[in-house]
Amino acid sequence: MMGLAIFFGASTVSPEPAKPSLSPLLQAAMRGDERAMRGLYQDHEVAVRTFAARLVGDADGAEDLVQEVFVALPEALRRFRGASSLRTFLLSMTTHRASHYVRAAARRRAAHARLETEAQPPPAQPDATLRRKELAAALQRALDDIPLDQRVAFVLCEVEERSSPEAAEIVGADEATVRARVMLAKKKLRELLEKRGAR
Amino acid sequence: MKDLLDEATRALREETRAETNPETLVRALAARQRGKVRTLRWLAWPLAATLVVLTALAGASGKLGRVLAFMALDHGAEETAASGAASEQPHAAVASAVAEPPDAPPAATTVAVLPASAPLPARAIARPSLPAAALPAPSSSAVESADELYRRASQAHFVDHDYGKAVGLWDRYLQGGGPLALEARYNRAVALLRAGRTAEARAALTPFAAGEYGAYRKQEAQALLDALPPR
CB–CB of A181/A170 below 8 Å? Predict the structure, then answer.
């Protein structure tokens, strides 16, 4: 699960001088220090994983996406100039690498939806838990049917509750664009949830 | 009236909080594995029918005796795997493509017994792709190739998601004694889990959970073990 980021040690990261405004841990990671890389992983893995799970919609795909992001991190740090926080940078990487995983997860969900006519085992969960799961699943299916840029904006702003300036920084668009995407996403999602009888 | 979208958004937020814990990961893996088992069951019928037809044809052409004699000569792991797949007896799966280094965890033992009812994944009976003896001895140039091997294993595991191949590459990396053996060992355990080789994954995770490697991945390994189905 982890560890791969650590491997990309001194031999793979350019010896570009670290920026003085960056944290010592990040500076060390940029020099290729594997302990520092491990530290970065430990500091940011949960946030990246949570965002990936929300964006992709299943743990399996999210897990793979997280790994891909951290595999690519040592190389990506060459481009990191410290203009944003590393967390924002990582979430931006996650966003840009998500499309394949989102599509794959959407295909899996669509396949499952086709099989839903099969007899289901009786639920063994309390009503509230079951309802929460059903609503979350309904929203994930609806998210599969809106454009990816709107999906990303919705997940960042509504599910992750990030501010629009932060979301704009992550996706590399201006705030107004992000807000417009969120509005469009919400309109479509409401329609889809109602049309599909989620209640 | 409550906004349905707001409620669904909250539900997704809470559900995905849970998605980040290892137990949920294991459940997702188990669900995928169940899907594979169902697929294997569907494949089993045509394969069995083909075998019956071929046996009948061999019998009719008088070659059945030669076929049986040939099969009787085929000993070793292949025989074990084949008989395991075909009979109701407990079978042994070749656990590792390459012998582990001396500091290997119990996962490195070469044979793991699976319950008779468990499906035998094709990868579990694969022969070693590269015998240990054929691996180059560690040297100064081998350090570089260990890095390359780690890259390839990472690529197979985390990018290509070819977990069977990843297990083989992690094994080879460990055999070469690379500097990131601990990470490779944990990754190997996860790759085994991903490949549906639950018994081997359990054995590979156990030393981490037992603290044999200190605190490294101790909690994660224990959580994964706890979430695995009972033996």
Answer: no
Say what angle helices B4-19 and A127-143 make with each other, to 10 degrees.
100
Q: What is the pTM of this model?
A: 0.49
Q: DSSP H helical segments within A57-119, as ranges? A: 59-76, 86-96, 99-114
DSSP state of A117: G
B2, B19, B222: which to substitute to probe chain A, counting the most A Cβ within 10 Å?
A: B19
Minimum distance, in Å, between the CA of residue B28 and any CA atom of chain A: 6
Cα nearest neighbour of B10 on chain A: A159
pLDDT digits (tens, 9 = 90+) for A112-126: 766 655 444 444 555
| Cβ-defined contact of A3 to B14 (cutoff 8 Å) | no
Nearest CA in chain A to B194: A60
Q: Are A81 and A106 in contact (CB under 8 A)?
A: no
Of A49, A139, A199, the CB nearest to B12: A139
Q: Between chains, do B7 and A135 touch, taking CB under 8 Å as contact?
A: yes
Q: What is the pLDDT of residues B1-54, one digit of tens each?
A: 468 999 999 999 888 775 555 555 555 555 555 555 555 555 666 677 777 777
- Token code pair at residue A145: 């049917």
Q: Enumerate the residues of chain A whose CB falls inside 8 A of the CB of residue B184.
A: 3
From A82, A67, A83, select the one nearest A29 (Cα to Cα): A82
**How far away is chain A from the Cα of B8, in angstroms, using its nearest Cα?**
5
Cα distance between residue A103 and residue A108, in whole Å: 9
Instruction: State the smallest CA–CA distance between residue A188 and chain B in angstroms.
Output: 10
Dist CA A41 CA A19 (whole Å): 20
CA angle, residues B182, B191, B109, in degrees to nearest 5: 65
Predicted complex: ipTM over 0.90: no
Beta-carbon separation of B12 and A71 below 8 A: no
A41 sits in which H/E element: helix A34-56
φ/ψ of A122, rounded to 5, equals -60, 140
